[in-house]
Amino acid sequence: MGDFWVFGYGSLIWRPGFAHVETRRARLYGYRRSLCVYSFVHRGTRERPGLVLGLDLGGSCIGLAFRVPGELRDEVLSYLRERELVTSVYLERTLEVRLDKNGAGEGSTVEAVAYIVDREHEQYAGALDTGHAAAVVRGAVGQSGKNEDYVESTLEHLKALGIRDHWLEEVARQVAPA
What we know:
Elements: E1 4-8, H1 11-14, E2 22-39, E3 50-68, H2 73-84, E4 90-99, E5 109-117, H3 130-137, E6 141-142, E7 145-146, H4 147-160, H5 166-175
Parallel strand pairs: 1-5
Antiparallel strand pairs: 1-3, 2-3, 2-4, 4-5, 6-7
Helix pairs in contact: 3-5, 4-5
């Protein structure tokens, strides 16, 4: 099998954790980046959930597409499934993403593995307003650390890539101490 692509929109942007041979900025249509998943493990607990990102229906999302050599398909998919499907709140899908133009001025559409939120799962938080999302994030801690750090790190990496997420920026502003 040939090379394949993986689409990252949150922590996969700043910590992919798998071998790849190319990284391109990309846009996924039909889904948006959203703090719509209650975290019971990595950024919160069942008693005090945090919020992590999911790809939810609507709009579009700018992220990164990683090209993975075909011979690593089984290894990388196994890693991603172990990482992303811990509680089955995400569904693995192959979706079309539009790659930004490269140095040669070429942009193209490719199929990429992406993890979208399962709206029927108990961890689906839905479309929260910024105040509610900030209240959930503030003070939540899980196995991977503080929920605030997750939001801040995501925004720092998005900013470094020239990607704006106004909703997430507003959540972070409301989480920050006055």
